[in-house]
Amino acid sequence: MAGTDEDAVAAADDALYVLTAVLLTPAKFPSVLGDDYPEACAALGLPPQADGYGLVLGQDGDGARWTVVVDDVSLVAIAVASWDCGMEYDLSPDERSVVTALPGWPLAVAVAAPGVPVPHDPEPDSADRPALCPPDTTVWGPAQRRLGADEIALQWAQWREQIDDAEFPTRDGDTGSVDGAPRAGETGASSDEGARADASGGRVAADDRTGAGTSGHDGVRRVLTEARAYVDTPPPLGRVRSSFAPGDARTLRADGPGWSLVARTDDIAFILLDEEPGEVLPVGRGPSLPGLLEALDRMAVRPS
């Protein structure tokens, strides 16, 4: 365990009650921690190794919060998949797979181990670094923007059904709004308006019923321009990710400075911006979005 605090590892390993676990890999990482895999690793003080990590979150016998980092990614992936299916799985990483133990939790955990004190940070003298804590998501900012994009990807059908393609404006350079589009991160909340745009960044034919010009929203234009640039100049690892979707489609997730994009390769896209608190901006299919999404999917990181 070179480069780790062995005392902290021993303290965390002493009767650690496992509450949950998550993957930290180029293709799947807690996006609340960063726009890409290296940024998420940096938030935990970890080098972005190619195979990634598993993060095991639990409490020791005194109730202190610990995040145990392991390099047995497959073991953690099996545990997470089992729990997602409602199955029991006893996650007990071999101590040889432990990379380090970090005080605190980087993510919010709503449960606690039974029979031990309520969750609290370890004593300062038990670790050589400040305790981890979840990013602040009580106000709109990068963390909440990424969580909003996570929700759209997870609940795609619910968000998509609120968008009527026929309502996309058809006048050149026009933008419009959609009634009934909930705020990012607030599924089922009261409606907000979202600007609609096509991915071409230019004019749209009058008979194109699935797109609108982008001239009315500079933020959308900027995002589409930066996303197109990713195709020619690959961004940091994990900034564009591709995952499974129904049929032959893929779910695409791309992030950049101040923005997140969620799309289906056979459908439209949604954009969230740091400067547009709570707004969800649908991007019409149009003539150019399909090619952009296909190009992003080809260079995206995929789960192994």
TrEMBL record:
The organism's place on the tree of life at top rank:
Bacteria
Question: Region annotation Disordered: residue ranges?
Answer: 116-142, 166-221
User: What's the protein called, per UniProt?
Assistant: Integral membrane protein
Organism from which the protein derives: Streptomyces coelicoflavus
